[in-house]
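hey so i finally got around to running the thing on that chain from the lab meeting. sorry it took forever, my laptop kept dying and i had to restart like 3 times. anyway pasting the input first so we r on the same page abt which one it is
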Amino acid sequence: MTDKDAGITNYIEYFSKARVGLFTHYTYATYPKNKGKNWGGTHFSQSDPRTARSAEEAAFLFDGKKFAQIAHRLGAQYVVFTAAHAGFNLLFPSQTMMSVGCSHKCTEGSDLIQKLIDGLKQYKIPLVLYLPPNDDHDIEDDDLIKMGWYQNSDGRCEFLIRLIDEIYDRYGNEIAGFWFDQHGPDIRVCDAVKAHNPDGVIFINTGVTANEVKHPYSDFLVSEYYGSIESCDSDSLPVHYSQVNRQIGNWWARGGKAPTDARNLYRYTIRTISVEGQHNAGIAWSCGPYLDQSWEDGVYELLCELGDLLRSHDGIYGTVPGRCYPTAPNSTLSKDEWGVSTESEDGTTVYLHVLNAPCDGILKLPLPKNGREFSSAYFEDVSLSMKRTSEGYEIVMPDSDDGTDTVLRLI
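ok and heres what got predicted. didnt touch it at all, straight out
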């Protein structure tokens, strides 16, 4: 069963409306010139900091079903997963890599990507593969020469096109597209992606922090990493309209722990998906398992708790950023601001995410930016008292306030 069989007929449209994803670096020998340093790749376990002995070991130990289960528990609408990181060690048996004499830079037979595809199928979660097309400073010179990368941009392009061809020949349209790091590859590589699947998505990252200009070959605006969420109130962090990837723990599992609680992550998620112009796949929370398939301390539980919060609140999935009450890019949320808004795609329903309930129990709203008029307000299925004023609307808040997000519906 392909993603199109699962009901996704247009990947570009799907990702433009996606709100939440999971981004995972699962790496073997990420920085080969620093093999003596344990931070060079995914560790075996919390207690054993060694990295994988080979790409084969990393792929062999990976449990695609278990990973897919946690992606589903999170409520992820897509997964971005590392096919190869800086050292360009592929986690499947690549004929392209073998043909150039670099069989040590792929697996012997285990296929992590296929295991991941098989696991995600039952949840209908599309898979995007991460590749770093310009990381030649992390590949040994002898291997660069064999791959055709050594001081040769055309050789790099030819190799990547062969690899893209192999990936589509091997997995077909089970691959929704690619997330290219480091300012992306040559246009010819992107053309190869589209030749195999015109609907395949291309994300191209051009920097580590918030980016304002989309790469010309990219389907979406991407910001790899938009500040740390560790030990801070996420309301104080700015939000952005690009596809945002924020870490939980580390980029790859290497001894970290859950840096915050699910409420903090949830509130940042809601604020991100409400940003004006956020049609770039929302937020992808970044973390991954150890080689023994356990997770960094508290991270697995944190993902489950965040998923529970996302499922228990309306106005998240199937919505677009609020047009009546838009959230400005790069904005934060102060204690005296009520929250943010999202809307149904057709605009008939506006969701107010009241993140800071008013002390007097009366939510005072300004007039909608787009001139919209409302007739009714609801909390769940309960009608709320709403009064139209010269300045906007006054809504009597419900007694229920979970301290995370009280979602009101306006129609």
